[in-house]
Specification:
Elements: H1 13-24, H2 28-38, E1 48-54, H3 58-66, H4 69-78, H5 87-91, H6 96-109, E2 114-118, E3 123-129, H7 130-160, E4 168-170, H8 177-189, E5 203-205
Parallel strand pairs: 4-5
Antiparallel strand pairs: 1-3, 2-3
Helix pairs in contact: 3-7, 7-8
Length: about 210
């Protein structure tokens, strides 16, 4: 982590703000679906499952493998919660008892997440309890899709300048703070300067 910009520290306020954006993408309908499953005989919400997030661009495989992307995913999962800002939308669909159950279950299950890289696919494998898996699938899928596409774009730009990533700098605008964090996080992990002039960077990556 020492080579990375301090604003992307997992203990920093920027990352905490990004996790709030992830948690804001938890969908009440997914909770209602899990509520119905909880009523099915023999359903065990703690059954371990694996989510497979493939890397569908060959040029993105090496940069993602060499980055701390697995730590990013795991830390996001560890911080999954129903936030105070969104709790009213859950109260509109769930009674107090169910809401308390989900809050407690997420708190416990969020600590049981592990992430591995499978070079044979290639893909990142996320192991987590079944209940949590369905709740975080949508936001994590969006995260992964944008991460892979950003990585592909930056890798192609680095290739176009003969591998000299220090001559590049990030000059991107995103449609949301969520996407902007992903762009800048990926650029930072690929050692692309974030501002014009850093390390004599002169070519904009848009």
């Amino acid at each position: 982590m020492s080579d990375y910009h301090p604003c992307f520290s997992y203990d920093g306020p920027e990352f905490a703000h990004f996790c709030n954006h992830i948690n804001a993408r938890l969908c009440v309908k997914d909770f209602l679906y899990k509520t119905r499953e909880l009523g099915i005989k023999d359903y065990d919400p703690n059954t371990p499952v694996t989510l497979v997030f493939p890397i569908n661009h060959e040029i993105a495989v090496k940069p993602l493998f060499e980055s701390d992307y697995s730590t990013l995913i795991k830390t996001i999962c560890n911080r999954t919660e129903i936030t105070p800002h969104s709790i009213d939308s859950f109260r509109s669909e769930l009674d107090d008892q169910l809401l308390a159950f989900f809050i407690d279950a997420i708190t416990v299950q969020a600590k049981q997440v592990s992430v591995e890289y499978d070079s044979s696919r290639p893909a990142f494998l996320i192991q987590l309890p079944d209940l949590l898996s369905d709740l975080v699938l949508a936001p994590l899928s969006q995260l992964h899709s944008e991460i892979v596409e950003s990585c592909r774009h930056f890798a192609e730009m680095i290739e176009a300048v003969g591998g000299n990533h220090t001559c590049l700098f990030l000059n991107a605008h995103a449609s949301s703070a969520f996407s902007m964090f992903i762009f800048t996080w990926m650029a930072n992990r690929m050692h692309i300067p974030l501002t014009f002039g850093d390390n004599n960077s002169t070519i904009a990556v848009i």
